[in-house]
Amino acid sequence: MAIGSNSSNNSSSKVKGYFERISESKRDFRRRLAALPIAEKLRLLDSLRERMLAIRRGSNAVATRKTIVQETPSER
Hints:
The protein has 2 helices and no strands. It is mainly alpha-helical. The protein has one domain. The model has no long low-confidence stretch (mean pLDDT 83).
């Protein structure tokens, strides 16, 4: 048995447990979404669409501010 292998197994077990909890949480969330009436699902979709548009508008504003172009006077 290698030195430190016990702590490695313990760490691996913690990580595995962490991901199992995440997976179970995702399954639970999907079950709850599936059980919702279609009208509620459509309301959620509208809300997500509005959020996406707000994020997109915000990111475009940042991109616009970053791309400042200065014109230099042309010599004639």
